[in-house]
Amino acid sequence: MPPDGSNPLNNAAATSSSALMAKDRITTGRNTTTTPVSPAVPASPSPPTVDTEVKGKGKEPKVLVSNAKEALTGAAQTTEDHLYSKKTKTNYKGQVTRALAYAAAQTEPGWRNAFTKISSLMPTVLMAYVASKCQGQEGDGLSYKTAEGIKSGLKHYFKTELGCLTDSWSCDSDGNCTGNPVHEVAFDRYLQSLKNRDGRAGTSRQSLAMFYSDIVTLMEHLQNPATIAERTEGLCLLFQAFAATGFALWTRNEELTRLQMKDIELDLSTGTGSPFFTITLTFRKTNQADASKANVYQIHPQPDYKAVCCYTKLKAWLQWMERSGRKLRSEDYVFPALDAQGRIKFQEALSQTRVQGWLDQLTNQTGLLAKRNGRFTTYCFRRGGAQFRFMFAKEKWSLKAVKWWGGWSEGEGTGTIMRYLLEEFTCYEYGFSDMLSPSRQNSRHAVFMGETDTPGAAPITQYSLDVSLQSLKEAISVEMNHRSSIQEQELNHKQEVANKALIDSVMELNKALQESFLAAIRGLGHEPAPALATIPVLPILPILPVPAILPVSVPAPAPTPARKQPQQGDVEPPPAPCIPTIKLWKEAVKQWEVGDHAKGLTIPLRDWTGSMRKTDPTKYSQRKLIAKELDRVGRNEGNMNDIHVKATGVALDESEDVNEVEVVEEDDSEEMEEEESEESEEECLIRRKTCYTCDP
Hints:
By secondary structure, this protein is mainly α. The protein has 4 domains: 8-36 and 62-200, no CATH class; 212-412, Intergrase catalytic core (hpI Integrase, Chain A, Orthogonal Bundle); 460-549; 572-696, no CATH class. It is built from 22 helices and 11 strands. The chain has helices at residues 8-22, 68-82, 86-104, 122-134, 144-161, 185-200, 212-222, 225-231, 233-249, 253-257, 310-324, 352-366, 380-392, 399-405, 414-429, 462-523, 585-593, 610-613, 617-632, 637-645, 658-677, 681-686; strands at residues 26-28, 31-33, 50-52, 63-65, 169-171, 177-179, 264-269, 275-281, 295-299, 336-338, 344-349. It is elongated and about 140 Å long.
């Protein structure tokens, strides 16, 4: 302990904190103010390191006694480097520099040194400086946030440089003051008044979310030739890439300005050859110290959302920088600063103030805030991107994915995130400002975002129905073709197995006949003739290939080949299936011409025999009548609709025209009797094991 009773650790910390402002001198006009700096401690040789070892029963480990002053200096340097972020220290330094310059320019007695030594004038000069910035008439008219920033910077300065440690301020009659002048009562009341003033101005202080429609409008404006001529191509490409990247990664604007080329890995591809690149975001608001918690984002092309496609916008900006400057290096900033002539400063990050200025200008030019109360600030792309992916995109993300992608901390409550995402829509949900409107939808306040199935809420047009019907047709056609292909493969496989089994059986039969024939000859006491040693094998009938299943379609089918009479060696046909129920006349044509494999109708109705028709003669007659009528009108769907129902669908199985069905059944039954009478006895024998009803 030093003789004066002071603590060397506190002295070293005070010395290091003084270095924050002692490095720079603030010069204004002819007056030069130098911040007080503690006298330097003369260097002294460090005592040698002493190794001590206690010998005895239990040996103690070696104790290294290092230089205490070096340790304290290192601790102070660590505190200076890492207690505050680089951005915070820069902001504090700027606030102090401007405040000292303001005081040095004043002519009032004692005001020039008001911020360099403790005096009763400190709160007065401080209030005058803040008022010069925030008052609307003679000052800059800045907001309460500006005053709050000045207070934070000067509070840190007074605390570290002048020893104003307590959160209070008082002065006695002798002019001795204690505490920190930023906590003086009158100054505190003035700051609260500024806060109330801005709150009553009617402008929301929270950043509005930039919706996808706003991004589209902004991108169209930046791609306009007139805008490019006014702001240069480089600036337009820069802001397009900045907005698309912020919308894709949900970043705060200040986080995006710190992005460097070493954080991007270009020219990657997936296992299927799809291109992408990655962006690593290490330090976000919720992660300021742990580099291991960085999120790596894969950026893929987004052809459905071209306005916010980070893949194309960011690559276009990087390519423009290389064409206009030089090849990019790992330490270069992705969004660097630009000088007055538009030249790129690769090693200097774009300032948040510059980004906000561009954003305000573009917002005013495009009129994005004409019907909204607030402004777009540092959170606009983050809030807009999160809301878009959670509620409006075609593939909406889960809350778990939103939480990870947005970089929210693990301890962040779900309620906080939901309020962050749904704040504007919560106001809409619980708002009843249109209660007197005669066109108000009563059900709007009952469901989320007013989505309802009640008539009038969302009118359905003929065009939308046609588009939906066409999409449904295409989906059904693809699905039916897929199923037909699978069934065809299964049938081919079964046919191959059956063919192999049949060939093996015939070979075994031939072998058995040979052996029996030779045994019979030996029993007669005769030697087999040489020619008998090579008895010809019974011929194997060729196996007919399974016909390919026709795809489902309405156009005229291929001509049907002549029906082949079954032979004794053919495989028995499967039992006749039931005719599936239908709702549309096109399905009747499909069942008649190609069948319906998905519903078990593998044989077209026109190929059914008389015995098969007996399973359901009524539906068979209906399908036949509709198919022949389509042929009669030239297979024209329009003629079919105009002549009969003038609609694309008819519930055939629920038809009330009983007389017509009975007539068709009577006429068709005569035809079935004729065809059934022509059926040969051999055909009946072949089909005796099926469900068909034939007289023996």
